[in-house]
Amino acid sequence: MVPDLRGVATPDLMGVATPVRVFDTISGVIPVTWFKVDDSFYDHPKVFDAPDCAVALWVRAGCWSARNLTDGFVPANMPARLCDDPDTAVRELIRRGLWSRTKDGYRFHDWADYQPTRESKQRERAAAAERQRRRRQRQKAQANGESVTHMSRRDSRVSSAVSHGGSSPSPTRPDPTRSSSDEELIPQKASPSSEPRKRGTRIPDDFSATPAMVAWARDRCPHVDWRLETEKFVNYWRAKTGKDATKLDWEATWRNWMLNAAARTPATGASRPGPHRPYRNPIDMSVYEEGL
Asked: Domain 9-114, what fold?
């Protein structure tokens, strides 16, 4: 039986004990660990002329070890599950210095120098669980209308022991395992229970211009017939169908209608074209009597 490093070891049909991948009830997700392969791996002297079965076994066993947090340990019966020629593959990996024999199985060479270890992943997951806990506390406090300033300062002191407990060396290439650290950068939205979303309605059956609306129209749109435009407004929106027929503020919608009508209607005055009138001598006083 292979020592279990993550949970209860469950023998499969081939007699190989596979650690159970436990669902993380704190963060709400199944933890994922990446097995890192350098982009020059195919050209490495130890790998370049290796048989395909050995390369396939090295990659697949590495994924299995990273997933189950075995720190590079591979059970003795595992290679038979991962490649077609396990004897040749294992022999080549050991001969080339990529694997070494150990009790009950094999071990990757220098795993901790290039791959995430069980200890480092546990620290990362503990830090992620702490961030999740603080985020949920903030959401709960916001829903209850409480201040979260004091709580945030207290949590920062509590989490310092986790966040400063040590970290693995920074990789020379992008590390997809670092994505969880960006969670704190996401702005938190207000709880839906604190600000219920308003829904639009159709135009009321008794919609009419109030005295305040009429005063606004006379001030802002003096050359617009507000009675006629209000009648057009009501008829248009009562006949309108679909999602665009609902509005949150019908008075504001009416004001926009009046402003559009004002833009379409030219103002009265000297600039408005009128009927042609013949030229008259301004000395003739009858011109002034006619009110020109």
From this structure: Arc Repressor Mutant, subunit A (1.10.10)
Give residue-wise pLDDT tens across range 133-151.
Answer: 999 989 988 888 765 555 5
Q: Which of 227-235's residues contact partners 24+ apart within 8 Å by CB, and which partners? A: 229/257, 229/258, 229/261, 230/254, 232/257, 233/257, 234/203, 234/207
Its pTM surpasses 0.85: no
Coil/strand/helix, residue 11 = strand
CA–CA dist 172, 150 (Å, integer): 39
Domain parsing of the chain, residue ranges: 9-114, 118-185, 211-264
Q: What percent of the chain has pLDDT over 70?
A: 63
From 86-90, 234-238, 243-247, the region with the lowest mean pLDDT: 243-247
Beta bridge partners of 99: 108
